[in-house]
Please model this.
Amino acid sequence: MSAVEARLAELGLTLPEVVPPLAAYQPAVRSGAYVYTAGQLPMVDGKLPVTGKVGAEVTADEAKDLARTCALNALAAVKSVTGDLDRIARVVKVVGFVASAADFTGQPGVVNGASELLAEVLGDKGVHARSAVGVAVLPLDAPVEVEIQVELTEA
Model:
């Protein structure tokens, strides 16, 4: 077990299976020393636990928890192309999309769920640049979607 997966276990978390693509793309792609993930939905056992807009059908706190799930799914996608999460030198960028009710403006707080998880699991390597964007709708009516970009250590 990698040190990162041991840390996940300490936090009571398990790295999930990679979420299969919903269309014509790969869950993650490596280019040189970087891995770019596709947008990860908060899928659990192949299903979305909640659907709808944040600020309407979904609370900000629920969405923040869903963003944590997205980050876990993103780490699984990274592992699928690296074989070992200990190869992560640092998380460079996180982009979070929040399906938002018209008057909802708390996107940064929602995406904190992903950012905080990455920092808990990876420590200083999990500190990153970030964008949090409100959108009208996401695939499958998901409330949140997160993608990450990581830099790898040399093999």
User: Anything to note?
Assistant: The mean pLDDT is 96. The chain has three helices and five strands. The chain has one domain: 3-152.
